[in-house]
Amino acid sequence: MADKRLLICDDEPAVGRLLRAVAEPLGYDVLITTGGAELQSRIDGFAPTLIMLDMVMPDLDGNEIIGWLARRGTSARLIVMSGYHTDYADHAKVLAEYKGLGPVMTLQKPIDIALLRSVLTQP
Fold first, then answer.
1. Is residue 31 within 8 Å of residue 7, measured between CB atoms?
2. What is the mean pLDDT of residues 36-60?
3. Which conformational region is residue 90 in: left (phi greater than 0), alpha (psi within -120 to 50 degrees), or beta?
4. Percent of the chain at pLDDT above 90?
5. Which residues are paired to 106 by β-bridges?
6. Do 101 and 76 touch, CB atoms closer than 8 A?
7. Residue 42, Cβ neighbours under 10 Å: how many?
8. What CATH number does residue 114 fall under?
9. End-to-end distance of the chain based on CA atoms, in angstroms?
10. ∠ CA 123-21-69 to the nearest 5 degrees?
11. Domain containing 77: what range?
12. In what order do the strands lie in the sheet with 104-108?
């Protein structure tokens, strides 16, 4: 298993494909999930080192997943993404860090590819 494992959780398949296309050449193994329940069922078998989490999804929203990740003591770095107002991702960042998941980064959709590459190459 690679040292860099990215778990993407976004209900928009095109976003997942874009993130994978950027992350794999940077050495990441990538697993794409399209909802919170799928993330929950697949996280243990993948053991991500980084999770990219969309905040608005139909089954579980990002804040619910953040709470779940915190309760289980997830050690993966977290990046929260949103296509809504920047405050939405910023508030989720505060929540995640308060719950011990920090430091947390945010990305606004549409995602700037150069910024994404920069974020993915940070230790």
1. yes
2. 96
3. alpha
4. 87
5. 80
6. no
7. 15
8. 3.40.50.2300
9. 18
10. 50
11. 5-120
12. 29-33, 5-9, 50-54, 77-82, 104-108
On the 0-12 / 13-18 / 19+ scale of CB atoms within 10 A, 79 is: buried
**Token pair of 76, please?**
């993966």
Tokens of 65: 């997943």
**Alpha-carbon distance 82 to 77, whole Å?**
17
* pLDDT beyond 60 at 59: yes
Average pLDDT, the chain: 94
Measuring CA to CA, which residue among 9, 104, 111, 5 is closest to residue 65? 9
For the chain, give the secondary structure using H, E and C: CCCCEEEEECCCHHHHHHHHHHHHHHCCEEEEECCHHHHHHHHHHHCCCEEEEECCCCCCCHHHHHHHHHHCCCCCEEEEEECCCHHHHHHHHHHHHHCCCCCEEEEECCCCHHHHHHHHCCC
Number of C-beta neighbours around residue 33 at 10 A = 22
In the chain, the amino acid numbered 69 is L
How many domains is the chain built from? 1
Q: What does pTM read for this prediction?
A: 0.95
